[in-house]
Amino acid sequence: MHPPAPLVALSTASVYPESTEVGFLLAAELGYDGVELMVWTDPVSQDIQAIERLSARYRVPVLAVHAPCLAVTQRVWGTDPLERLRRSGDAANYLGASSVVVHPPFRWQRGYATAFADTVEEVAQQYGVVLAVENMFPVRRAGLRAVPYAPSEDPTDVGHRYYTLDLSHTAAAGVDALAMMDRMGDGLAHIHLTDGSGATRDEHLVPGRGNQPCVEVCERLVNNHFSGVVVLEVSTRRARTRHDRAALLAESLLFARLNLQPSTPIATPVRPNGRDSADLPVRGEDHVAVPLQAPVPGPLGASSRP
């Protein structure tokens, strides 16, 4: 008997510019296992009692909390980044989420950078949750490259107990996602399943629409009996209607479900047209890569950079 497939959650950032509540609504309608709560400038995302009510109303659990780490959230839950980290751990504990996603400190946050690793461990112990530090990417403008994170955009350079692997960030950084996955090793606790074309900006494409090894990552998760949460964190900012946004998120969920299922040998059925299932494309091979338009300001995309 195979172990169950990993839980698949929708990041509430994926519905921007719609509200956090719409994240819960679409997660429920499309059949996601839960949500990753992005705590950012939407006041509802900062009100944990309001989130608890949304979770109950839509019957969608909060499986993870994304701490307010973006440049645009530096005043969410106060100006002290250490306090924001603690409040994120408290929120995850209160909501029953198993993990907190956190970015490495910015270089100008010198006190925070010094205390970061110890505080991550302290919060994890205090609230009984996993704090998974996410890989980021450098900023490139006019031929110049700058790393705004201390000591780097790669959390494995420091070494933490747990990590989040983000495939849009590996694309923007121009690094090998599978090699980073290897470096994270048993500490890999959380996945942002998304994609990128290799452009220097953070794109958060629907998985399968870029050049990242999304299928291979899913296969490794299955083979390694991954027990963390796989989160679809994709940009739908250019969707013209709620229906269009839902279609992108449904496609993302289908990609995850198909590629996170354990391989089980089964008899090959014969189709009415004479073709059997062995003739059919598998694991997304029939997917046509159509890149999303360039991201615009919001919780995902270009404005997520400092």
Describe this structure in words.
With 306 residues, the chain is of the alpha/beta class. The protein has one domain: Alpha-Beta Barrel (TIM Barrel), CATH 3.20.20. 33% of the residues lie in helices and 14% in strands. It is built from 9 helices and 10 strands. The strands form 2 sheets. Strands 1-2-3-4-5-8-9-10 form an 8-stranded parallel β-barrel, surrounded by 6 helices. A two-stranded antiparallel ribbon has the order 6-7. Helix 5 links the parallel strand 4 and strand 5. Helix 4 runs parallel beside helix 5. The radius of gyration is 19 Å and the shape is globular.
Q: What portion of residues belong to β-strands?
A: 5-15%
Note the run of SSEs as H and E.
EHEHHEHEHEEEEHHEHEH
CATH topology-level fold name: TIM Barrel
What is the CATH architecture assignment? Alpha-Beta Barrel
Q: What's the CATH class, please?
A: Alpha Beta
Low-confidence stretches: 265-297, 302-306
Shape: globular
Q: What is the helix content?
A: 25-40%
Order of neighbouring strands in the sheet with most strands: 1-2-3-4-5-8-9-10
Main sheet: strands, sense, barrel: 8 strands, parallel, barrel
- What structural class should be given to the helix and strand makeup? alpha/beta
CATH superfamily: Divalent-metal-dependent TIM barrel enzymes
Average pLDDT across residues?
A: 88
By DSSP, the count of extended strands is 10
Q: Helix segment count? A: 9
What is the count of structural domains? 1
Rounded to the nearest angstrom, the distance between the terminal CA atoms is: 47 Å
Radius of gyration over C-alpha positions, nearest whole angstrom: 19 Å
